[in-house]
């Protein structure tokens, strides 16, 4: 797992990215979206597992899911699964607050 610092603190991250916000990061070779829902912060691969649309252009619904902008499939931010099992799970990444900042972890198998 390679860790990328995205904000100097959790508080700063929530300031810059209020609830409902989605911010795209390039972490190594991976496009990762940080999503701030009412349930917390989640890091997901930007590419939708269905046909690759950018989930950073999607919307968050009241069920803590992200809705893809292309075909409106919805994915659980907590578990990554599509809500009606229409396609494979989206790729999720851990978000961790460390002493010196807020980090997203990207597994080596996703970062070549
Ligand atoms: S590309 Fe996301 S639902 Fe089709």
Q: How does this model look, in words?
A:
With 112 residues, this protein is mostly beta strands. The chain has one domain (2-110): Rieske Iron-sulfur Protein, CATH 2.102.10. The chain is 6% helix and 41% strand. It has a 4-stranded antiparallel β-sheet, with no helix packed on it. The mean pLDDT is 96. Bound molecules: FE2/S2 (inorganic) cluster (FES).
CATH architecture tag: 3-layer Sandwich
> Strand arrangement, largest sheet?
2-3-4-8
| CATH class type | Mainly Beta
Associated small molecules: FE2/S2 (inorganic) cluster
Total tally of structural domains:
1
Span between N and C termini? 12 Å
* Radius of gyration, in angstroms, nearest whole number: 13 Å
CATH topology, by name, is Rieske Iron-sulfur Protein
Biggest sheet architecture: 4 strands, antiparallel
Count of helical stretches:
1
What share of the residues does DSSP label as strand, in percent? 35-45%
Q: Give the helix proportion (percent range).
A: under 10%
Please tell me the overall pLDDT: 96
Quick summary:
With 112 residues, the chain is mainly beta.
Name the descriptors:
Rieske Iron-sulfur Protein; 112 residues; binds FE2/S2 (inorganic) cluster; four-stranded antiparallel sheet
